[in-house]
Amino acid sequence: MKISKKDALMWFEFFAELPEDEMLSSMHEEIVYATFAQIEEAVNARYEKLMSEIKTLKTLENRSYYVGKESDFPKGCRSCLIGTGLSAVRKTNKCNLECKFCYNYGQLDDSPPIGEGMWEIGGTKMYEKDIDLLLSIHEKPTGVSYVYLEPFMEIEKYYSVIKKFNDQGIHQHMYTNGTLATEASLKALGQAGLDEIRFNLGASDCSDEVIENIALAKKYIKYVGIETPMTPELYETFIEKKEQILSTGLDFMNCAELHLNENNIYNYFGENMYIARHGYISPVWSRKLTLKLMKLAEDEAWDILIHDCSNHTKFARGLNLNSKSWFGASNYACEFDAIPFDVFLPILRDDSFEFLSEEALPIEYMPLGFDLI
User: Fold this and answer.
1) Which residue segment(s) compose the domain that 119 sits in?
2) Dist. CA 173–CA 75, nearest whole Å
3) Phi/psi zone of residue 228: left (φ > 0), alpha (ψ -120 to 50 degrees), beta?
4) Are 185 and 266 within one domain?
5) For the segment 310-366, what is each residue's pLDDT rounded down to a tens digit?
6) Which 3-state string (H, E, C) describes 192-221?
7) Are 46 and 85 contained in the same domain?
8) How far apart are CA 327 and CA 247, in angstroms?
9) Which of 20, 27, 244, 337 has a Cα-to-Cα distance from 320 of 20 to 30 A?
């Protein structure tokens, strides 16, 4: 069903007024999915045009896109996309910042603790001493990552665990906003065996302090990069400080397509949104900024790899992570219990955004009382 933009707007305005707990009929769901398909098709056409202009665009086995040397593609992402998946190691439930794009926005003080003396590995609570047992029973993962929330809040607790995994030859990477890092802690991480560290440069608005910490990290940790959601604020500040950032010697930049959940979506209300494969909801501009940055990196021959960590990449990640399960299994899914119809109204009201093709709705899909003339 190639629903028209006018009809899609009419229906979505109606859906947005419904009580949250009201169930849609199958016919209504068809209209919703037809609208999503029309928006996504038009959005992807714009992305494909931008991608066609990047002459050196490469793929990692069709699972993700990048520009730069293949040898610089982050090993943590390889583990995620073509290895045994992203094995998350969690310890710290605190953060020193609150970013509008954070998936825990507004709930940072309510993030549940992992437990005194405990770690969460693969969703299972265990003590550090249990890691030896874990490694003796489970097949070694190609990599693990330290996530949730800011590890430098208590970084000294991480060193011994990092050493355990390093002794087993397992690639390890860590995420940080970088504001609490010091030369001493970065050196200790390197000595413990951390292979890769990723700075969320958008969290600090590309602060000089964090840029300096990126350069310090490169002295002690083999692979150093940036991983941050692509937002207009980040893009603008990154361009202003481009030479300073690139001179740190970093290896890669993962440009994450910002996807939204119930905590942070209304920080971006009014922006044009689309939903990818009925899963992640994202502002249209996020991946556009990634592709724009990749084109600039190509034109100026930057000596770092720029990775398009898009919703497509996240979909491929889910398939890879579940490849040992049933055929087609994936953990990629929508993060909303109920569709937030109101966030799609701006793109449907945007006169500059057009569907690629349209057709009239069958009469049975028209609401009662609608003027057909």
Assistant:
1) 59-337
2) 9
3) beta
4) yes
5) 999 999 999 999 987 878 888 899 999 999 999 999 999 999 999 999 999 999 898
6) HCCCEEEECHHHHCCCHHHHHHHHHHHHHC
7) no
8) 45
9) 337
